[in-house]
Amino acid sequence: MISNVISRFNDLNKDLEENEILFELGVEESDTDTIDETFRQMRKLDKRIKKFSIDLTLDGEDDPNNSIVSINAGAGGTEAQDWAEMLFRMYMRWVDRRGFKVNIVDFQPGDEAGIKSVTFTASGNYAYGYLKTETGVHRLVRISPFNASGKRHTSFASVFVYPELDNEIMVNVEDKDLRIDVYRASGAGGQHVNKTSSAVRITHLPSGIAVQCQQEKSQHRNKDLAMKVLKARLHQLEKQKQDEKHQEMHASKDEIAWGSQIRSYVMHPYQMVKDHRINMEVGNINSVLDGDLDPFIEGVLLSDKS
User: Fold this and answer.
1) What is the pLDDT of residues 196-248, one digit of tens each?
2) 70 contacts 116 by C-beta, under 8 angstroms
3) Is the pLDDT of residue 193 over 80?
4) DSSP per residue, 201-236
5) What topology is assigned to 67-168+246-305 in CATH?
6) Closest CA to 205 of 244, 169, 173
7) Domain extents for the chain?
8) 175-242 classified as CATH 3.30.160.20
9) Which residues lie closer than 8 Å to 277 by C-beta, 6 or more apart?
10) Statement: residue 142 has pLDDT above 60
């Protein structure tokens, strides 16, 4: 890890020095083509340096790991469930931009529209390090598309992010502490519904944590995926109990409730997305909902290290 950081720093420093020398030669010889090329290279270097700065903030033990993300609609029925689906689409777009791989672990469709909840994994370098900044309550203000009177409506959805465990990290889960239920998978509009009981719900009795998976046709595969999510959540819970450094995380999770949102998305009477943790505002809400989350994610990462 340290050797990789040093190597990247040396490469950036070398490229910067070479570009400076090339610029000086271009100025001495009044070579506009060379000068233009150095400006193009500097723009590329600037992006590499910014990425390097962000990567230096990802120094947590679990930051390099894959990520497990759960989105849950808040109170409010169809409105909140539609908002949860909008958030899901937003994260899918962001993940696609990053080149991460996605696997849907569980998907619970809404009663009329949207989704009640969804859990998915995002696999790629530092997926957890980036996505951990999204944990919290997300608030949407808009004219309701489900209300004929066209009144403004506020919806909430919660996002929780956990690290997927490396194979070397072991969590001891005893069979006697588990209750495993199997049932038929449900689907939106009656589509893709399994005729066999392939869906699996695993409840860890001592902690009360319950996870479920119904996306695979194989009951065995669903059980494996559900166990992976359960171990990740138990690992996170254990770390919070044993490590005093996680007391701040405990406090922040206790504060996650309707009205204590980390970010607001306003579509009416004006358009704005505001991250309340860093007081950052963006006017193009459509771009954000289309996956342009990097300014917020990077802003939170850098503010945590300032």
Assistant:
1) 678 999 999 999 999 999 888 888 999 999 999 998 898 888 777 655 543 54
2) no
3) no
4) EEEETTTTEEEEE-SSS-HHHHHHHHHHHHHHHHHH
5) Alpha-Beta Plaits (3.30.70)
6) 173
7) 2-57, 67-168+246-305, 175-242
8) yes
9) 262, 300, 303
10) yes
